[in-house]
Amino acid sequence: MARSVAEHLVTQLVAAGVERIYGIVGDSLNPIVDAVRRTDGIDWVQVRHEEAAAFAAAAEAEVTGKLTACAGSCGPGNLHLINGLYDANRSRVPVLAIASHIPSDQIGTSFFQETHPDRLFNEASVYSEMISTAKQVPRVTRTAIQHALTAPGVAVLTLPGDVADEHVEDDDEPILVPGACPARVVPHTDDVAALAKAINDAKKVTLFVGAGARDARDEVLELAELAAAPVGHSLRGKEIIQYDNAHDVGMSGLLGYGACQDAMEEADLLVLVGTDFPYDSFLPSDVPTAQIDIDASHLGRRTRLDVPVHGDVGETLRMLNPQIRAKTGTARKFLKSKVKQHAGIMTKVVGAYTRNVEKTTPIHPEYAAVLLDEAAAEDAVFTVDTGMNNVWAARYLTPNGRRRVIGSFLHGSMANALPHAVGASLADPDRQVVALVGDGGLSMLLGELLTVRAYDLPIKIVVFNNSSLGMVKLEMLVEGLPSHATDSPSVDYRQVALALGIPAVRVEDPRDLSKALEDGLDRDGPALIDVITDPNALSIPPSISSGQIRGFATAMTKEILGGGMGEVMSMARSNLRNLPR
User: Which CATH number fits domain 2-169: 3.40.50.970, 3.30.2290.10, 3.30.2350.10, 3.40.30.10?
Assistant: First the structure.
């Protein structure tokens, strides 16, 4: 029996576990869309922008671990996918993207809407190929699926609309290659022995843990206890290692907090565990450093490397831990001092925004984040916009082993939170999904509120509305520049949501915030809570260089000379509370 290329492709996706394709219909995509209509077990999810389709697919893949799919029509349609696909590929989640193309006999003639998707998507994927004939389809599609699942990452299939209508003769070849069990990446015994010696010889060890430790939490905590090591983490490592961890000292980087930075700088051995932390300025160059990573290309590319170990974190630590002598004396004193320092910093910071803030307007964003953390479900999925919302989520959302926090943590794209929430909610409609959005990110892909309404998704959208690009403002100040073009007109997103049929409230008085969050999160279906937050609230990194201090001082001087004394004083009042005292 012959089937069209589109039908065969959709059948292969269903066999691979794909339940929906996110996208916008268009002429060159029509054969695919119609095949989805006629195929059981798969749905078409109509978004309002193809970038949102890629973000939604990425979030679904993140929370399920399964292959997901998105699609864009020829030319501009599939070009809109590229930012979300960059994000998915850097996050290493399995997504298959269908980039439909102009008629095959017009390729190379500068035809209407002609681009070259098979070339354009190379940098945003682990696999990108064009299907030129029907005979390619079974094997090329299988290959794309294998690449997406096993890299993991994004695989792109470029498909001309006329080829999608061609027919494939069924044969005896399987629709899919049987999945193999993941390979074990076991480190060399000599490397493990070298790391064991370094840890045993060191008097003060600090562990810095990333997302690569996801399946090795118990082993990391065992090593921390043996080595009497404080445990810091990256943003993506937070949900893995922070909770129920007596060795926790917080996070480093621009979003960081607590005693992590000092613990790294004061150690005589820093062990990077499953992290490719990119901010080398926060990694001490004068501290001997070991690194464990499943990807050998990550070893030593961020900071000095004295002891490299190529291997899976779990496999490595199961070999390493029996070789570690339990530390006493100086090591225990170091651990105790860093944990105590961390507790003191966190207590002061918490006190700084919880004392006398119930009457302070605009609302402190830290306070809003804490109340949201307290109101949200124990297994909530938080999707977080890039910018200051990343800071508040990193510092004040509490992981517990069941919650997930998803964001554009490697690509750093704006506007990811709402479309990420769409994918997470469709993947598990019974699980609470909270989109922690900034007004800048929300306005960029505002149309996706229509997607939420159209599918009646039970997403809770919490807008930290400060009419400002807060992170950009901070970047300018650090560089010695007064903020410019970072503010935007005030928008009442409650009214926008209500106009679309989404229940919504606007909160300007902090005394109303707790009830507004609780009511919104408890409501059936979608809800939007528009929280008016302080535009001058900026994050203070855990380590501030002399250059950054000079930058702040220079920028403030320029503000004053430009007649902005009131703005400077307002910013000072808003941020002094963030400085540990």
Answer: 3.40.50.970
232 forms bridges with which residues in the sheet? Answer: 208
Q: Look at residues 154, 170, 159 and name the one whose alpha carbon lies nearest to residue 101.
A: 159
Domain residue ranges in the chain:
2-169, 189-343, 356-578
The reported pTM is: 0.89
Alpha carbon distance 225, 232 (integer Å): 14
> For position 266, what pLDDT does the model report?
97
The CATH code belonging to domain 189-343 is 3.40.50.1220
Cβ-based neighbours of 481, under 8 Å, separated by 6 or more:
551, 555, 558
**Digit-coded pLDDT (tens) for 48-68:** 999 999 999 999 999 999 999
Q: Please say whether the beta carbons of 481 and 470 come within 8 A.
A: no
Q: Which CATH superfamily is domain 356-578 in?
A: Thiamin diphosphate (ThDP)-binding fold, Pyr/PP domains (3.40.50.970)
Helix and strand numbers (H, E) in the chain are: 24, 21
Q: What is d(CA 193, CA 87) in angstroms, rounded to the nearest whole number? A: 37
Predicted confidence (pLDDT) per residue in 464-480, tens digit? 999 876 767 666 666 67
CA-wise closest residue to 156 among 104, 85, 93, 90: 85
Phi, psi torsion values for 434, nearest 5 degrees = -120, 120
Are residues 437 and 368 in contact, defined by beta-carbon separation less than 8 angstroms?
no
- What DSSP string runs through 260-317? HHHHHHH-SEEEEES-----GGGS-TTS-EEEEESSGGGTTSSS--SEEEES-HHHHH
Place of tokens 């613990």: 263
State residue 538's pLDDT score: 67
User: What are the E-state strand segments in 419-458?
Assistant: 433-438
Burial of 39 (0-12, 13-18, 19+ CB in 10 A): middle
Given a contact cutoff of 8 angstroms between Cβ atoms, the answer to whether 330 and 203 are in contact is: yes
Strand, coil or helix: 507: strand
**AA identity, residue 458:** P
Query: CA 350: distance to chain centroid?
Result: 25
Which amino acid would we find at residue 275? T
Q: Can 2-169 and 356-578 be said to share one CATH topology?
A: yes
Positions in the chain short of pLDDT 70: 1-2, 171-172, 349-356, 469, 471, 473-479, 538-581
